[in-house]
Amino acid sequence: MTSPEFGHNEKIPSMFTCDGGNVSPPLAFHAIPEDAKCLALIMDDPDAPLGTWDHWLLVMPVGQGIVENGMPANAVLGKNSWGRSEYGGPCPPDGTHRYVFRLFALDAVPDVKRGFSKAELLRAMEGHVLDEALLIGLYR
């Protein structure tokens, strides 16, 4: 997984944060296993003061990526830590935080409905992860 807007361990442009347009960044997916039935994306901030903060939870059909401020057709959005089923961009209260994008290729479609929690998604994915990709962006 890559983004044309920032590299691994590089600064996320402000347009993808609460200081800018708060739009989701474009992401490209590479080398998806042939037997993958769907993809799951988790974006969270492990440096949040009260513990890991979930910014974006998404289950989607297998595809090549996500366009800027876009959502794949037939995607199912989970509930972020703000309690909303949408993308919530980086918005750290202080210091530089890491924003971890994890993409999972799954051999089965998880039985989740709009508004699912990260815990529900992780339970539904157990035993079904074929591969995982990681992209970390930084923001201050």
UniProtKB/TrEMBL annotation:
Q: What InterPro entries does the database record attribute to this sequence?
A: PEBP, PEBP-like_sf, YbhB_YbcL/LppC-like
Listed SUPFAM superfamilies: PEBP-like
What name does UniProt use for this protein? YbhB/YbcL family Raf kinase inhibitor-like protein
Gene3D superfamilies linked to this entry? PEBP-like
Give the matching Pfam families. Answer: PBP
The organism encoding this protein is Prosthecochloris marina
NCBIfam families according to UniProt: YbhB/YbcL family Raf kinase inhibitor-like protein
Highest taxon in the source lineage:
Bacteria
